[in-house]
Design goal:
3-stranded antiparallel β-sheet, 9 helices, alpha+beta, globular, single chain
């Protein structure tokens, strides 16, 4: 009698339903998940409180309705406001990314919603001004050695940047851009491989520098006022100016990964209470 065992699939896969990566059949942590868990974000506490306060100020009738409505947990509803604002911004960011990818690939996009037109127009101007030529866009990548995965926005070239050599550009539609994007792009740039459209592993081109493109609308009217004094349209900011800086950012990423991956270990550090009936265990 023979027994057949199931062989774990090789390569990198992604499940859209669970938003999870698997590498060689085993769960692997995403770059953004690592950074969310491994980089302190003290400003988020202030942002969450400010978001609730702004909602209360702007919607007094709705707030009063929530307060008096039967069966509604008033505190829970207000506490959920920051998550809703974050999720709505995420939907906008995803849509802008999709149009940006199509624009970079084909040079044109159609049926852009009015509320996103300013983002797309600004990004189109950016591509033209910097004469960006995409090499790879929205490809999954991973490292077996350091065990992470993710998907980069764009590897491309520009005759105006780094002597036309390959660079990585990450797109952000958030209110501000942050230094941790340097860690994110370093992880992508120094990954061991990316998956091509046929599902095959390929080595990444040698990335010589990383950038973040802050994609904002062409006006500051209504909801767009949240961008404040940020330049209109798409603005390019340098992250790692060379490979040495990139490796430094990668070292910071690995430190964040260690912090994230040891969360459960830290939670288990505190032992059971010591009583007078027992001796404290020294080792």
């Amino acid at each position: 009698m023979s027994v057949k065992t199931k062989t774990a699939p090789k390569g990198l896969t992604f499940t859209h339903n669970g938003h999870r990566y698997k590498l060689d059949g085993l769960p692997v942590t995403g770059v953004t998940t690592i950074l969310n868990g491994g980089v302190p974000k003290p400003a988020l506490v202030y942002w969450a409180g400010k978001t609730v306060a702004e909602f209360v100020e702007a919607n007094p009738l709705e707030v009063e309705s929530l307060r008096t409505r039967e069966g509604v947990d008033f505190v829970r509803e207000l506490a959920g406001v920051p998550a809703k604002v974050r999720d709505d911004a995420g939907v906008t960011g995803t849509a802008v990314h999709d149009f940006a990818e199509a624009l970079a690939a084909t040079g044109t996009v159609e049926d852009v919603p009015e509320e996103l037109a300013g983002y797309v127009e600004g990004y189109a101007d950016f591509l033209d001004r910097f004469q960006i030529t995409p090499l790879l866009m929205e490809r999954p990548c991973a490292s077996r050695k350091d065990w992470y995965a993710g998907k980069f926005d764009m590897i491309g070239t520009s005759p105006l940047l780094n002597d036309g050599q390959p660079i990585m550009i990450d797109l952000k539609t958030s209110k501000f851009v942050y230094g941790e994007t340097g860690l994110q792009t370093a992880a992508y740039s120094l990954a061991e491989f990316y998956m091509d459209e046929d599902g095959n592993e390929q080595p990444l081109p040698e990335i010589v520098a990383t950038y973040v493109a802050h994609v904002t609308p062409m006006d500051r009217i209504g909801q767009n006022a949240r961008y404040g004094e940020a330049p209109l349209g798409t603005t390019l900011y340098p992250l790692a100016k060379n490979r040495d800086e990139m490796k430094g950012h990668y070292a910071m990423f690995l430190a964040a990964a260690y912090t994230h991956k040891t969360t459960k270990l830290r939670d288990s550090i505190v032992g059971e209470p010591v009583t007078t009936e027992q001796k404290a265990v020294a080792a």
